[in-house]
Amino acid sequence: MRIVVAGYGPAAHRLVETLARRGFTGTITVIGEEPRPAYDRVALTSYLKGTGAGELTLPDPGASARVLLGDRVVRVDRGRRTVTTRDGHEEPYDVLVLATGSAPFVPPVPGAGRAFVYRTIEDLDAIRAASAGATTGVVVGGGLLGLEAADALRGLGLATHVVEMGPWLMPRQVDEGGGAVLRGHVERLGLTVHTGTGLDRIEDGRVVLADGTSIDAGVVVFSAGVRPRDELARRAGLPVGERGGVVVDEGMRTADPAIYAVGECALAGGMVYGLVGPCNAMAEVAADRVLGGSASFTGADLSTKLKLLGVDVASFGRLSGALDVTYMDPVGGVYKKLFVSDDARTLLGGICVGDATPYTLLRPLVGRELTASPSDLLFAGAGGPRVDLPDDAPVCSCNNVTRGEIRAAIAERGATDVPALKKCTRAGTSCGSCLPALASILAAEGVAQDKALCEHFAHSRSELFDIVRVRGITTFSRLIAEHGRGRGCDICKPVVASILASLDGGHVLEGERAALQDTNDHFLANIQKNGTYSVVPRIPGGEITPEKLIVIGEVARDFGLYTKITGGQRIDLFGARVEELPLIWKRLVDAGFESGHAYGKALRTVKSCVGSAWCRYGVRDSVGMAIALELRYRGLRSPHKLKAAVSGCARECAEARGKDFGVIATETGWNLYVGGNGGFTPRHAELLATDLSDEELIRSIDRFLMFYIRTADRLQRTSAWIERIGLDHLRDVIVGDSLGICADLDAAMERHVGGYFDEWRATVEDPEKLRRFVSFVNAPGTPDPSIVFETRRDQITPVLVEVTRS
Amino acid sequence: MTPTGRATAPGDDLRTWVPICAYADLIPERGAAALVAGDQIAVFRTFDGRFFAVGNRDPYSGAYVMSRGIVGTRDEEPVVATPMHKQVFSLVTGVCLDDPETALPTYPTRVTDGTLEVSVE
Ligand code: SRM
Ligand SMILES: Cc1cc2nc3c(=O)[nH]c(=O)nc-3n(C[C@H](O)[C@H](O)[C@H](O)COP(=O)(O)OP(=O)(O)OC[C@H]3O[C@@H](n4cnc5c(N)ncnc54)[C@H](O)[C@@H]3O)c2cc1C
Ligand code: SF4
Ligand code: FES
Question: How many domains are contained in chain B?
Answer without folding.
Answer: 1
